[in-house]
């Protein structure tokens, strides 16, 4: 390292430029190294994320037929969106889905994390079993649940039949279908958020609990006064990522389970985008809806960062 | 650390001749050369690309399964392309697309969106107009003789023809009927004499046969082109329509359409039909396990029963009619089409016409093999129907019943664009599963369709 420094300093000196200090040269080298290390990732992100994202936004100003015909229509797709009852219906359903899933994932994930944090027999196996649904293909998850919930013949319907509840069509009744999709979503995602919460719980120093116990605090007080406040960074992460996952996910689940039905009860916005793009060939309109989705998520993330001062909780 | 940047290396003879600027210049020149080569390669097809085999996307060949029937169907396609290549024509590669018949399959859509659609592909009536309006279908009329055109049943060609020009050659006609499970009927003390002929009788029978794990009547429940396809005949039976083929105006707010929507709603509401499909939509599994007694579906289930439950007794009957109406069914079926923007549409069109639309003895024989032996469904051409007679697959009395009793009541599946499909689909779903008022739903759909047709430009809606 020193040889390089000497050489470059000497070169600059020969050219008559002011000789930088050793520290400045080191900083310059570090910046250059950072540049080269970041370049491959940045290029990948630029080509495969930034460019398609920009193209998608641009596409939202065109009418496309899916066969190479482009017509610039300005804000036409956005005007159409504003007056499209199907779009607003899917927005409403997505909000209901969001309101159902995110709090449930938070509570269930945290509850399971508290449970598997305990010293109980086979805790490793229990953690693995709870995490397994998350790594199973969503299509498989949907098919398994479809069979279990099958009207008249599914295992759940038969169990309910034992209690005199017959002919419940969880996936065929509009008032039940979205709730059923919410339950399945929570079921396959809870393991992932359990692990996140578990990591957060294990970061909380045991001395705090010990001191609280000595002071006579009960379990609920320890949870409220120590666990919840110190889990705030983790909670923030869970709420932001779960929200984004819920808004952009669920397509494969709905696709297999209900096809958006019954009577449109499970037509999430992402499913509507898929339908417009790939079933109807309305690529421009689908791109415009996608752009709105991105804007909503950006606004949500910005709000969350603003409320939490950039996700920093150190000074609390 | 002292190797690459050491003063010694920097002062070496090689480095002395290659400054950083030289390196940048060399890099830019190299990148430019590569880009130019890529652009030239992309713009100018090479000799090998010009003679490369054409691609034919479909759901049959090469068969990924070992089932003898599927292998035979696959072999039918492979034999045709072999024969074509041996005749010195441009070869055709069969490309099997998994789940090709699923309307939500994105392979074809994305291929065309990226300007890379296959040279030939199979198309269903529901998709026809989107591809026609997109300008990617080749007019096949110049490749057909008038005798061959006249050999097709008019209803088989109707939805593949625009302004007298033929854009698709149908392989088959697939009528809908109601399949019934004989053991379920026998358990309920019913016989053939109890088969329903009216809507009311059908619902009554559905209620009677429902119970335990069994659904009496299965009407399709999933929102899709297929559900619309199964719904249209119920509208036609009362003299209604979605769009009047003559005036091209929406006519969905008719009494007939409202009655059909009400029929679907009543079927579910009264407990005659289920809200979801038993056995995940597998009719064969549902019949053999006692999960369903009657199921509205198409002729393709005859082959499915033959393959998977050859000894299970079942029968079919024509769709019951409303009071004062007539039994009408819908005719589906796949057709060969040629991509007008493909690599060699002329060669592809000649291939399609030779296999599917020639009056040569060889072409008719091939169709006989397809409809009468390998696939076992109703031909799209008169000469083929006559040549098959009651031989091969048509020894099956169910297929004979389809051909003799149900086909004459058939009308081709309409080729409505997505907006019309969606308006009708919403009305069906809301009336059937959402408990909505059928009249109001018909009016809502009518308004959406009328609004769309005001600015619609494209092939006629039939």
Topology record:
The complex is a heterodimer of chains A (about 325) and B (about 450).
Chain A: H1 2-14, H2 22-59, E1 62-64, E2 70-72, H3 76-82, H4 85-116, H5 123-135, H6 138-149, H7 155-162, H8 174-202, H9 206-214, H10 219-230, H11 232-248, H12 251-257, H13 269-279, H14 283-307
Antiparallel strand pairs in A: 1-2
Helix pairs in contact in A: 2-14, 3-14, 4-8, 4-11, 4-13, 5-8, 6-12, 8-11, 11-14, 13-14
Chain B: H1 7-10, H2 13-17, H3 20-43, H4 47-50, E1 54-58, H5 68-86, E2 92-96, H6 107-113, E3 120-123, H7 125-133, H8 146-151, H9 154-158, E4 161-162, E5 165-166, E6 169-170, E7 174-181, H10 182-187, H11 199-209, E8 215-218, H12 225-237, H13 255-269, H14 283-288, E9 292-298, H15 300-308, E10 314-317, E11 329-332, E12 335-338, H16 345-356, H17 361-374, H18 382-388, H19 397-406, E13 410-412, H20 418-432, H21 438-455
Parallel strand pairs in B: 1-2, 1-3, 8-9, 11-13
Antiparallel strand pairs in B: 3-12, 4-5, 6-12, 7-9, 7-10, 7-11
Pfam families (chain B): SBP_bac_1
Keywords (chain B): Signal, Transport
Family (chain B): Belongs to the bacterial solute-binding protein 1 family.
* SSE succession of chain A: HHEEHHHHHHHHHHHH
Q: Characterize the largest beta sheet of chain B: strand count, sense, and whether it forms a barrel.
A: 6 strands, mixed
The oligomerization state is heterodimer
Query: Radius of gyration of chain A, Cα only, in angstroms?
Result: 27 Å
CATH superfamily of the largest domain in chain B: Periplasmic binding protein-like II
Query: What is the name of the CATH class of the largest domain in chain B?
Result: Alpha Beta
Task: Work out the helix count of chain A.
Answer: 14
Helix fraction bin of chain A: over 70%
Low-confidence stretches of chain A: 1-15
**Structural class per helix/strand content of chain B?**
alpha/beta
Adjacency order of strands in the biggest sheet of chain A:
1-2
Q: Indicate the overall shape of chain B.
A: globular
CATH topology-level name of the largest domain in chain B:
D-Maltodextrin-Binding Protein, domain 2
Distance between the termini of chain B: 77 Å
Helix % of chain B is: 40-55%
Q: Bin the strand percentage of chain A.
A: under 5%
Quickly give the CATH architecture of the largest domain in chain B: 3-Layer(aba) Sandwich
* Helix/strand structural class of chain A: mainly alpha
For the record, give the distance between the C-alpha atoms at the N and C termini of chain A, rounded to a whole number.
43 Å
Which two chains touch over the largest interface? A-B, 40 and 49 residues
InterPro entries (chain B): SBP (IPR006059), TAT_signal (IPR006311)
Keywords (chain B): Signal, Transport
Protein name (chain B): Sugar ABC transporter substrate-binding protein
Organism (chain B): Isoptericola cucumis
